[in-house]
Prior knowledge:
- The protein is mostly helical.
- About 60% of the residues lie in helices and about 5% in strands.
- It has one domain (about 5-10, about 35-210).
- The chain has 10 helices and 3 strands, in the order ααααααααβββαα.
- The chain has a 3-stranded antiparallel beta sheet.
- A hairpin with a 2-residue loop joins strand 2 and strand 3 (about 180-185).
- Helix 3 (about 40-50) runs antiparallel to helix 4 and helix 4 (about 55-85) packs antiparallel against helix 9.
- It is globular.
- It starts with a helix and ends with a helix.
Amino acid sequence: MALTEYALDHFVAPNLSTLSMCNAPDISKSNYALSAESYIPNFVLNSIFHGRLENPTYAYLFNFLRKTQAAVTEYQLAREKLKTYIDMLPERNITLYLSALSNFETFLAQSAQSSELFVKFLREEIQFADIKIFVTAFAKLKRFYEFCKHSELQISNEAYPQNGTVTVWVTNSGLELERNQKSEVFTWSEIADSLDTLNELALIIEKLPYEKKIAHSIQPG
């Protein structure tokens, strides 16, 4: 049974009836998508053959790489499912849509946690002078993650759309949330920029401690 536009928007996800395109960038041929699975092996081998960084530095960077790689994987899974959902239109496979949304939510979690680990490393381990640049760069990513993470608070405080279902949803423009009747979109280009930044850093960090001049190597983009 085909659901009406009203049913899609009020019983499944806000504005689902208007979702008609997969505008999420295809990163499958990017340098980092092709090399992300090597982040941890390269870091471990460099640590074995060129000297292990002391903790907590090693733990911060190990988990930064692990979560950045996971973010790449989850984003690609989410995009593949979203594209399949769009290709199946006008059939509305809501199970597939919700599966894609779950992968996007996991992407937000892995990316935000990765950025938090990196900022913590900068602040506590090397007292990096330009830390505010990275905090600003990841601010929107963290805001969307926190909104997803605390869905129970958004629901109990009625901070999400009236008659809404999920607290973050997929649109043609990106991922969207509504807080106290004000909409905010994490655009596909902004999401791609966040991924680019994390993975540019990962490509530097995987070479550590072979390249030990951390503060010199890590510069704002």
